[in-house]
Backbone:
């Protein structure tokens, strides 16, 4: 679990996120033969010949690793991942509009609109579309939220796991999340880059350690924006 959390399992990107997004935007890709969550698990289990390093030796950003971590949460808690996060994290943090579920998001009258960026006649056109929501993206970073509600999440992180009168997490465990565990391979203007448990760190942001949650979904960021 430590290696999956820090993207240091030795398994390189297996292309699952790219396949999801390509299919969502209508590209007839032929890379990976999966059409369900179970197929994704077969794809991951069949990747043993693609392992590029021993665990802990190299950093490879692996969305599928966080899918596996989500499954571990489900096995231990006996709850679906999206409901566990809702009951144990979102509700205590008063993040009541935040959700992984399309039906919950779409019944909100004030939700953001995603746009697909495409080039037509030399111009970039923004076309309204729907969010590429699926169970395969929940644990890697599929939460639909807002800046206001994410502020509550950050308050809990900055306050040693406490939000108001609710203690979400022991301060020692939270410290492990924020600790630099693996050297990452992202580019930065602010010194060396590390990865904790879901957190990205730069060690010289004007003399300070900068911590942020980074979801490295370059294909999605290139082709979609939301307003």
Residues:
């Amino acid at each position: 679990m430590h290696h999956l959390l820090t993207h240091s399992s030795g398994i390189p990107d297996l292309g699952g996120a790219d396949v999801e997004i390509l299919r969502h935007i209508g590209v007839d890709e032929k890379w990976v033969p999966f059409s369900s969550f179970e197929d994704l698990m077969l794809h991951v289990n069949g990747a043993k010949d693609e392992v590029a390093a021993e665990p802990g030796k190299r950093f490879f950003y692996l969305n599928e690793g966080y899918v596996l971590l989500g499954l571990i949460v489900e096995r231990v808690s006996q709850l679906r991942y999206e409901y566990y996060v809702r009951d144990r994290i979102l509700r205590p943090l008063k993040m009541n509009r935040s959700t992984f579920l399309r039906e919950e998001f779409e019944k909100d009258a004030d939700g953001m609109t995603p746009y697909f960026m495409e080039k037509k006649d030399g111009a970039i056109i923004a076309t309204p579309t729907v969010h590429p929501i699926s169970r395969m993206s929940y644990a890697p970073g599929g939460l639909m939220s807002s800046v206001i509600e994410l502020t509550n999440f950050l308050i809990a992180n900055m306050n040693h796991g406490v939000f108001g009168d609710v203690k979400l997490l022991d301060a020692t465990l939270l410290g492990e999340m924020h600790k630099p565990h693996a050297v990452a391979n992202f580019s930065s203007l602010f010194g060396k880059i590390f990865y904790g448990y879901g957190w990205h760190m730069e060690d010289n942001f004007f003399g300070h350690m900068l911590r942020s949650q980074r979801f490295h979904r370059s294909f999605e960021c290139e082709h979609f924006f939301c307003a």
